[in-house]
Amino acid sequence: MKLEVLRFSSQNESTLGLLFEATEGRRFLCFTLEDRFQEPKVPGKTRIPAGTYPVKLRTEGSHHERYGQKFPGFHKGMLWIDPVPGFQFILIHIGNTAEDTEGCLLVGNLCPQNIIQDGFIGESTDAYKRIYPPIAQALSAGEAVTITFIDYDRP
To answer: Per DSSP, what are the bridge partners of residue 95?
Structure first.
């Protein structure tokens, strides 16, 4: 399975994007929110560099424990983007603003046009519950899953 994040808007503290399954054509999955681009990197406050990375299931840590309780029955582990040079524990998870990211990728169903400058996505839990099962199933079945970050928000 191949995933793509097309980053389309940068603000002072965050980056908005679109998550697609890169099938023949692209199939839209949801909106994304990350920390902003910055050099040098600031731990927990910087989005990961453009490029392609493997996605794995992480079955340890506090996020995994919380999500196991929040989503019993379908949670198999956190969607973990690893390795990313210079970064650790980059997860795909629920959240609405840059304060929720800590360098991770947030997913949501809504990106209200009037607050794009503030970097907000909504209905994050609903988006996660929709996109997580097929990705986790592919990983559990031994299928390679990658995610490619493409910058359309920077020259």
So the answer is: none
Domain that holds residue 75: 2-132+146-151
Considering the domain boundaries, does residue 141 fall inside one?
no
pLDDT digits (tens, 9 = 90+) for 93-118: 999 999 999 999 999 999 876 655 67
Q: Is residue 138 part of a domain?
A: no
Beta strand ranges found along the chain (DSSP E): 2-10, 14-21, 27-35, 51-58, 78-81, 90-94, 105-108, 145-151
Instruction: Give the confidence band of 31 by pLDDT, cuts at 50, 70, 90.
Output: very high
15, 28, 43, 82, 136 from 88: Cα distances, Å: 19, 27, 9, 8, 20
Q: Are strands 145-151 and 2-10 parallel, antiparallel or unpaired?
A: parallel
CA distance 22 to 80: 18
Q: Are 63 and 94 in contact (CB under 8 A)?
A: no
Q: Cβ(85)–Cβ(79) under 8 Å?
A: no
Give the HSE-up count for residue 99: Cα atoms under 13 Å, Cβ half-sphere.
Answer: 3
Number of domains in the chain: 1
Does 139 map to a domain?
no
Give 119-144 pLDDT, tens digit per residue: 889 999 999 999 999 999 999 999 99
In a domain, residue 9? The reply is: yes
